[in-house]
Design goal:
The structure holds three protein chains of three kinds.
Chain A lengths: L2 H31 E5 L1 H5 L8 E8 L5 E2 L5 E7 L4 E7 L11 E9 L3 E9 L8 H12 L13
Parallel strand pairs in A: 1-2, 5-7
Antiparallel strand pairs in A: 2-4, 2-6, 3-4, 4-5, 6-7
Chain B lengths: L1 H26 L17 E3 L7 E3 L8 E6 L4 H16 L3 E7 L3 H11 L5 E5 L3 H6 L6 E5 L5 E6 L4 H16 L1
Parallel strand pairs in B: 3-4, 4-5
Antiparallel strand pairs in B: 1-2, 3-6, 6-7
Chain C lengths: L1 H29 L2 H4 L2 H24 L6 H6 L6 H7 L4 H22 L5 H25 L23 H30 L4 H32 L10 H26 L3 H24 L12 H25 L14 H31 L5 E3 L1 H21 L10 H23 L8 H24 L5 H9 L4 H27 L1 E7 L4 E4 L2 E12 L3 E12 L2 E6 L2 E5 L5 E4 L1 E3 L4 E12 L2 E10 L2 H18 L2 H4 L5 H6 L10
Antiparallel strand pairs in C: 2-11, 3-4, 4-5, 5-6, 5-7, 7-8, 9-10, 10-11
Helix pairs in contact in C: 1-3, 1-7, 3-6, 6-7, 6-8, 7-8, 7-12, 8-9, 8-11, 9-10, 9-19, 10-11, 10-13, 11-12, 13-14, 14-16, 15-16, 16-18, 18-19
Classes of the chains: A alpha+beta, B alpha/beta, C alpha+beta.
């Protein structure tokens, strides 16, 4: 192998190695940063990992929004009509947050199934329900958990 | 040959991407035909919008061909389709029932007083639970129900004259015969 | 009447687009001058009719013609006139009309300004642009007609989304579309070259200015979007790695790689196949972005109204355009000859590294954007990719890019002695390292490795640029010398590079410092109460109601003081628009060169108390200032005198290649 060729080869090898390491690091970080979405039913059923950053979503139960005395911490319930979980958030809620709306919250599950949210997302359109939430409601219906008002027929 | 293969890589990657995107499109509930079509309407009982003491239930839908229109005062597209609905109601070709979805009773009543009421009766679904049973994702949505109470068609989005003439009325005529 | 006129004009435009796509292309293959000559008139005609259609829609908005469904959905009598015009592109149908209007504009521009190209090549380029036009015009006419009537006519319109009633957002889509659509020019040039089987330095020279201008617009569009988000959304954020944002960032990354790669192909005839592929990729990413944003496949806070039926149309269009172009590439690329040779250490290699890194970043952004879709499609659950990952991934790769940026301008084409380069950059290295260490120390702010890294990288770029400038102006001293140099051929490209790279350095400082040192405080305040924020005192003086043209606002007053001296009074607002009744936050911002003070109202808590969010954002303006500089660099590069010479002998272009010392790019 000519010295020129060898130099070129070494350079290429170095580049590939450097880039390869960077890619490996980025991919590993990717996996750690994936946030899975859990429904209130899943959370109540213990499927959601505690302490990890996850997302939960559901409809904000009417009458459940309670503001703490400091003015900034608020707790509310979210439900998929099968199960309900409590969410706590300190900060300013998004403009479109209101009872009866579908929201998605990002945060961690603490003991006692209290979800401490770091961010609350409400979509920018009243008639738009986050697909994950809509899906969750549909699944909950399918699994037979029904309220008194509705009766039995499952789609 | 290997040389040529190298240049086909971008195309191959694109093909894979298209496969995912296509799958992604079909995952959207609006593209998939509603699973409720062909099934009986869900059992429910709700108070009437105009009179909280009176109720309306699935039993009211048997015996005639009807439309159920899901609407709300907060829904801008509903406002747009409203005149079309009023016109349709005037023709008397089909009874239109309303499902007032996640709304405020007073607001909804005032709305109907102001803009006209095409509905035979309105069911007041304040928390949207019944809507969930019907597979409602948002407003407006319109269902065509036959005499036996089977859902025959679901239209998502606001109704226009064209849709009424092309989609709704022909089916209604067919179901009536 | 007018909407029907607009509709008819679009139909005429479509038929002209058909003429434009078919005849010149076939004419170029059979060498029929008559058919080739149809290209320019067809392009002009297409533009003329689309302009009429656009004018009709604008007129419908300005006259509050609510019989047009699109106007009924997005217009309103109370809407200020300037926003009535911008409402034209505020939603799906109208923005598509804008897209196609801009596309027809670019087509005309190419037909007029690229006259020096061989007629056969120009015909093919215009034909391909015509084909893209057909796709979009069909999309408009068959699925998204902006002139569809609604009957009965509503008395009032649905109003433009309040978030869009802002000057920044009024120009952001046009700028962005100028960029997206402009990529179709590079795309068309690439297709024309593949069809003709002739891929050489001349092709690169023709493509380059068009690509640079498109890239410049894309830069402006993205920068504006970020600036708008910061001003309007009330959260102090300026980039969210949102799918819609990523949809604009990916073409930008690919286009950046493309303009650098074109430099190599133009100067040295190397990287030909790769450059062509990049040109196809940049526009493909533009189209992909259009698909992602309008099909409902991805959820995003600012996607257009989702409609899977439309999504299917775009997907099919994507398959035809991208699939077709990549197939052409697979068929033709193998027979393209390899270009100039270069050594292991040379400017070519560094630019190759640049391209490699940019492509990797693009791939990762694509991965992060599509991952939720892929996971859902495979049934692996509903995920979302966190914002921190995108940041981390970007931060991993950018330093490598910056290192190359410092070396590139000083490295010779074809062969560079590493030792020689090291000697030239010695000073730069020392200053950067020193600055980096200083920057990470807790002198003005608390200590931070990242801040130090940012300072180091920025200084690296700036010092390298200074060394390069010094060498270039070696024989022309002083300002007079600089002025003289600006007039020479090739100076546009060079100074464009200098300004753009400098912009990157400014951008890096802005981003890193604002992320490291920003202070955020959520607080509840009573009227008259003060609080401290990063050395400033903020006094809340209560909230009053106020009526705007089409909204009602709760207007707060916050006094900003430093050392007991009042420096600003801010008026954050919470608005409720009359028609859409969505609450909206207007932040109060004290703008500064080295920092912003940002206040956002939360909610009234009773007794005049309000919750609010306060931000101290150091160097945040440097982000957009950097973006602006990058765009200016692009403008300078595109205006290089050598592109303005009308008559070119394409073969002589190859003769001018060869060893060019630092200073050319």
């Amino acid at each position: 192998m000519t010295p020129k060729r060898r130099k070129r080869l070494i350079l290429i090898a170095l580049m590939v190695a450097g880039v390869g390491i960077a890619i490996a690091v980025a991919l590993k970080a990717f996996n750690e940063n994936l946030m899975f979405f859990y429904t209130p039913t899943a959370v109540a059923g213990g499927e959601a990992p505690a302490g990890h950053l996850i997302r939960v979503g559901g409809l904000v139960t009417k009458g459940s929004v309670k503001r703490q005395s400091d003015g900034l911490t608020v707790t509310f319930d979210i439900t998929d009509y099968a199960e309900t979980i409590k969410v706590q958030y300190t900060g300013i809620l998004p403009d479109l947050f209101r009872e009866g709306q579908g929201i998605v919250a990002r945060g961690r599950l603490q003991k006692g199934n209290l979800f401490v949210a770091e961010e609350v997302l409400a979509k920018h359109d009243e008639k738009y329900m986050p697909p994950e939430v809509a899906d969750a409601l549909k699944t909950a219906k399918k699994n037979g958990a029904v309220g008194a008002a509705t009766g039995g027929e499952t789609p | 040959m290997a040389r040529y293969l190298r240049y086909m890589v971008p195309l191959a990657i694109f093909a894979l991407l298209v496969a995912f995107l296509y799958r992604g499109l079909s995952l959207d509930p609006k593209l998939v035909p509603s699973p409720l079509v062909g099934k009986p309407i869900p059992k429910f009982t709700l108070t009437r919008l105009d009179n909280p003491a009176a109720s309306i239930s699935d039993a009211d839908f048997r015996g005639k061909v009807t439309l159920l229109n899901v609407w709300a005062t907060w829904c801008v597209s509903c406002r747009q389709e409203h005149e079309t609905l009023v016109q349709l109601a005037k023709t008397g070709q089909v009874d239109i029932y309303g499902l007032n979805y996640k709304d405020n009773r007073e607001d909804a009543r005032q709305w109907l007083t102001r803009y006209g009421n095409p509905y035979v009766a309105n069911a007041f679904d304040s928390d949207g639970r019944v809507g969930i049973d019907w597979g409602v994702y948002g407003a407006p949505e319109t269902f065509i129900i036959d005499r036996e109470g089977i859902i025959r068609h679901k239209h998502i989005g606001p109704l226009t004259i064209e849709i009424i003439n092309d989609e709704i009325l022909p089916l209604v005529a067919k179901l009536k015969s | 009447m007018i909407p029907e006129l607009g509709h008819f004009a679009l139909i005429l435009a479509l038929s002209l687009a058909l003429v434009l796509s078919i005849f010149p292309m076939i004419g170029s293959l059979n060498n029929t001058p008559g058919w080739i000559a149809l290209a320019r008139p067809a392009a002009l005609g297409q533009f003329f009719f689309i302009a009429i259609a656009f004018g009709c829609l604008v007129s419908s908005f300005l006259t509050d013609d609510f019989s047009v469904a699109y106007v009924a959905q997005n217009g309103n009598t109370l809407l200020p006139d300037v926003y009535k015009v911008s409402a034209v592109w505020g939603a799906h149908e109208g923005s598509l009309l804008l897209w196609v209007f801009i596309l027809s504009g670019w087509t005309v521009a190419v037909s007029m300004l690229a006259r020096h190209l061989p007629a056969v090549v120009l015909a093919r380029v215009l034909s391909v642009m015509g084909m893209v036009s057909i796709g979009f015009l069909s999309f408009l006419l068959f699925t998204s007609n902006p002139f569809a009537r609604v009957f009965p006519v509503p008395l009032q319109g649905g109003d433009l989304n309040p978030l869009l009633q802002d000057p920044g957002l009024a120009i952001h889509p046009p700028m962005l579309y100028m960029g997206y659509v402009g990529m179709s020019v590079a795309f068309s040039f690439a297709i024309a070259a593949l069809i003709g089987g002739r891929l050489d330095a001349a092709w690169a020279r023709w493509s380059r200015p068009w690509t640079t201008v498109a890239w410049m617009f894309l830069t402006i569009g993205i920068t504006l979007g970020s600036w708008w988000a910061y001003n309007e959304l009330g959260w102090g954020g300026w980039w969210f790695w949102d799918p819609v944002e990523n949809a604009s960032f990916m073409p930008w990354l690919a286009a950046t790689a493309l303009i650098h790669s074109l430099a190599v192909t133009e100067k040295r005839g190397a990287f030909k196949r790769w450059t062509v592929l990049l040109a196809l990729l940049a526009f493909s990413l533009s189209l992909l972005g259009t698909f992602l944003v309008r099909s409902g496949v991805l959820t995003s806070v600012h996607a257009f109204a989702t409609d899977p039926a439309r999504g299917l149309f775009i997907l099919i269009f994507l398959c035809i355009v991208i699939g077709g172009s990549l197939s052409l590439y697979a068929a033709r690329a193998p027979s393209v000859s390899s270009g100039g040779r270069f050594d292991a250490f040379s400017r070519e290699t560094l630019l190759l590294g640049n391209n490699l890194l940019l492509v990797i970043i693009t791939a990762f952004v694509l991965l992060g954007t599509l991952a939720p879709l892929i996971y859902d499609a495979l049934g692996w659950g509903k995920i979302s990719v966190g914002f921190p990952w995108f940041n981390r991934m970007f931060v991993i790769f950018t330093p490598f890019l910056v290192v190359l940026m410092g070396m590139g301008p000083l490295t010779r084409w074809k062969h560079q002695d590493p030792g020689d380069l090291a000697r030239q950059l010695r000073v730069a290295l020392l200053i950067s390292l020193g600055g980096g260490i200083l920057g990470s120390l807790p002198i003005l702010h608390k200590g931070s490795i990242w801040a130090g890294l940012a300072v180091m990288l920025s200084l690296w770029i700036v010092c390298s640029l200074a060394i390069s400038l010094r060498q270039r102006l070696r024989y022309r001293k002083g300002l007079a010398g600089l002025w003289q140099d600006l007039g020479t051929k090739g100076s546009g490209s060079y100074y464009g590079m200098v300004v753009a790279h400098f912009g990157v350095a400014v951008f890096i400082i802005g981003v890193t410092f604002v992320m490291q040192y920003n202070v955020e405080k959520d607080i509840r305040l009573s009227p008259g109460q003060s609080t401290e924020l990063a050395g400033y005192t903020l006094r809340f003086d209560g909230v009053q109601g106020r009526q705007g043209p089409n909204y009602h606002a709760d207007r707060g007053t916050v006094h900003v003081l430093k050392d007991d001296r009042e420096i600003a009074v801010l008026h954050p607002e919470k608005r409720v628009y009359t028609v859409q009744t969505k609450p909206m936050t207007e932040s109060g911002i004290d703008v500064g060169f080295t920092r912003d003070i940002y206040v956002s109202l939360g909610e009234g808590l009773g007794n005049g108390d309000w919750s609010m969010r306060l931000y101290y954002k150091p160097f945040v303006r440097w982000i957009w200032f950097g973006g602006l500089l990058i765009a200016i660099g692009g403008l300078l590069a595109a205006s290089d005198r050598r592109y303005r010479i009308a008559v070119r002998d394409q073969l002589s272009a190859l003769g001018n290649d060869g060893l060019i010392a630092n200073g050319g790019s």
